[in-house]
Request: fold
Amino acid sequence: MLADAVRDATAVLAAAGVPTPAVDAQLLAAHLLGVSRGELAAMLFGTAVAPPAYDELVARRAAREPLQHITGVAYFRYLELAVGKGVFVPRPETETVVQLGIDVLTRLSHERGEGAELVAVDLGTGSGAIAGSMATEVPGSTVYAVELSDDAFPWAAKNLAGTGVNLVHGDMRDAFAELNGRADVVVSNPPYIPADAIPRDLEVRLHDPHMALYGGGADGMEMPTAAEATAARLLRPGGFFVMEHAEVQAGAMAELFNNSGHWDKVRTHVDLSGRDRATSGLRR
Reply:
């Protein structure tokens, strides 16, 4: 019976240390059955049987393969993103970071009126989550995104197809010279983990690409420093830059912003769990 299989799978995942065993057991079953989680909940009270290959997917999840890699889908704000090997799985905390950029774009859209140019840039787009969110949630904005990784770029291309995002395969350090001094908003979730830090979650440690995790240098600040310099190059005076970072890097990020001489109104922003998650500034 399906209900028995899901209950057994929940126990297997719990024993393996999966943080949300019941949810994951249900989502794996729903994925194989092609139904929503709500529809699955109704099926659990009936006589449905477990789908073929369910045990196999449960075993993969118990081995701490990310749920999103198994189902091939990650949900981010209003987007359904294709993900898999070679691309960073977008996290809920990043949704609060991109909201800051969307708020500024929305305000500018109202201030400038219909038809006015709005330019936004996503540095190190990965799956395309940030760029896709800005493009779809702020109609009329022109969004640019850059990704260096040969493995991640095809995922971004797939996810951003049809969104109008201008996607480039290249290095954020020299990308979009044609936009110098024109961008209104720049958002970045660059690699930022320090060299000696070991990610807590096995899913991250074992499956997320190292290129998307480690920021370079002992303190992980090489790529964030590059993102800050590029944002300063791209933004018009008064333009908004926000960058995600680790909780422990909040002080270093504020120092980076303040010492560069590029930014006014430097602020630290917390995520939904109250952790320091991003730093922003307005271009001088």
